[in-house]
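From the pipeline queue, job 12 of 40. The input is one protein chain; the requested action is below.

Action: predict structure.
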Amino acid sequence: MAPWKAKTLLLIGTAIWGATFLFTTIGIQYCSPSLYVILRFFIALLLCVIFFRKHVFSTTKTVAKQGILLGVFFAVGFLLQTFALKYTSIGNTAFITNLCVVITPFVSYLVTRSKVKFWSKISVIIAFAGIYILTNPSADKINIGDLLVLGSTVFWSLYISFIQKFTAGKDTPGLNSQLVAFQFIGGLPILIAYFLLFDLPTFYLTINTEFLVSLGFNAVMASFVVSFLQVSVQKYTTTVNASLIFALEPIFASVISFLVLGELLTRNGFIGAGLMLLAIFVSDTLGTIIQKLRRA
């Protein structure tokens, strides 16, 4: 697959993730957050069994272990981020989560030994500035919530890097579907344990049309479809480019909020979004243009 096609599909996946902010806000009005995620994972796993049962039931132990490891990274990252919101602001959470752009190149080097190119390093610096302006975090003092979010960001970076490691040079739908299915198998026990330990006494659930639409979108599109997309196409680009694309999630969320709720980005929001788009251009295009000009 051509790199531009892979990046386009990852961009579509990121846009779907951006929409989850709206659908999740609706869904957790009627369902406890941890139970909501459990239902998302369970439905996604059920879809894997329905559509990929031939591959899922013929998985090797090695691939099963790889998928479960991805599920652990994903579930722990999500839970740390969710738990952190009790102690820190949404702005700090968004900022530190998007530091995945900065952390991923270092984690990726440790996992895959792939060197980060010069223009990718420049793009990371630009993206960092854009993320800071876009999210406007509070810098008063570091609290336990900030540290928990930082921990979740490390797990997101591990997730991205190990997808690259497990899928590099392999282009088989069977492997992709197996990794996705066992990702949900690996993540569900962690989510269920969290629910039983922390949320069971106070959980709530009301089933209505709004809840079912919210859960359906997040389970089918954001969990099942996007997970399969990421595992299938991320290998055709670099981890730096992938993390830069994923960092556009809050921008897509803002666009969708504007279209649905009429909420506008602030001036800083536009500046931050512009810098993040510039970072992708620098990482993906500028270096190639300069190289061609030098050869001319």
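Job complete. The chain has one domain: 3-295.
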